[in-house]
Amino acid sequence: MKYSIIPIRSFLLFIFTVLLASACKKANVDYTYDYRRNQDAEKPSNVRLVNLSKNNQLIVNGDSLTNFFVAPQRSGYIPPEQLTPPGTHYFPKNGFLGQTWYIPQHLFQKDGKADLKTTFISTITNIIPSHEVEFSLKESYEQPKDYYLLINHEALVQDPTKLLEVPRSITSPVKPDHFKIRILNLSRKIAPTYTMEDLATKLKLAYADGTPVSAATSGIASNTWSEYVEIPYGTYQFKVLTEDGRQVPATGHAYYNHINRANSTMEMSGPGFSNVSSGLTYAPMRTFQPGGVYTIVIHPADFTWTTGNDDIRTIQNAFRIISDVSEPQNISYTQLQLANTVMNQDLVLNVKGQSTAVTAYGTASEYKRVVAGKQVLEVLSKTGQTLFSKEVELVGGQNYTFWVYADQDKQLKTLLVANNLAGTGYTGNGKDGTNSTIDRYQSEYYFNFRFLNFSNQLPYVTFTNGDGIPYAKNLANGTGVNVQQGILKTDEPYASLLYSTSVSGGNYQFMAYSSAPARVPGDWLKQITPLSSETLVANKSLYTAVGRKVPAHEPGVYSIAVIGDPDKNSAAEKARFMVIKHTK
Q: What is the pTM of this model?
């Protein structure tokens, strides 16, 4: 018998190859998990449903795409899993038709059409005043289209409309640092059973102070829409006004949807006092991104008013903001302004070929939109002489104020401040920090104040309300406590108030104290005139012209600084408050 002998070198090579293959298999670093609820590649069409109705169930081509979920109606304990609506293939979050939905291309049949039906689920404890809507849609290859579903029950609105086709733009603005926006008026007469303010009229889009955005977005009649207009990107509080200047409320959190039915302003109520109108009509603040495309649509929506004893559900025309394209992330542009606290000096800020207007003492310039990255900021006199230059790193999507001040030696100094316009903040609960997400909040309707000191004669300044109580949560190192010249508070950068801060409807105050680390608030600086919250109302005629009371304040992000010399008496030099509103 003969035996074949494998050479030892070949045998070792074989073993090495097997081990190498095994090791490579175990170290497959290219494998990733797909955490999407729906992992199928379903290309959306140009046709979008915008659901502003009470219908949240959808049938397409005879197939149910939503869950038609009915929670158990029995009494007693019900396990949470039985109360949780199950997701579906097309609506994986909760199985309901939401506000917007792009119809997938594959749902259009061979003839290019899709048959749709929207409906609702009523129960004994939840009767929905709505009608089913059946309609057919055709794929739109050339022109993207929206189909708006509205509240359609005659008990709620007069002459209800079930469906309205509206063309939609998806092209980017001509200027890359701008966004596009339009107004779509779908207001309706409210049913006579509801005694509400009549807002079904021609409407216009305005900035927070009531200034019209454009002639193109003004005088828009019901069932019509304006053309898109281009606006520099930024954080805005847009308002919708009637022809005579009355404000249309926006839809929002239930906290803001308690309104006075005679004038649609938010009502404050609570134990110990009767209902008080805040004078404010809810309109959210939002950052509109460069390259974004938006529609502000006015339509009938749910609100609540109170008799003092009972809350009554009602309907009123309101506006909401809808993105017509996926919002782009802004990593390219930043906003920058100059704030001048140097007495007897007019200044100009120059950055990359752009210059602000001449900025007087105690004022701030308009914002310039600048490419993010390393930039040299030059501070010039009004005659063009370079007084100061500084290289800084500007982050995309940020909002900056470049403060210029003089120190005790009369030397020019600067402070670059990043302003938080996102409406985020810290609750101040003082937890152990293991999960900080639960200690933070975000709002679209905020009153945020940052306090600064640019007086070279005041080593420490503490900011208080009219009763001498600091605005800070943390009296040791919180916002507005012992603020030094040109130094920011970072632990608690902002003080935040609610729209209902002044329950009686009156104004509140900001006061300045000369303080010290062991003495808070310190000595009241009587020579600095207290700042009334009424100063935060940009245009009082927006309210008085239509017979409304002027509110105690208006929402926004504000910088409140002490400037000047407390030992001087002249109007040009004495210490005072300086206020900048960073939202528009």
A: 0.89
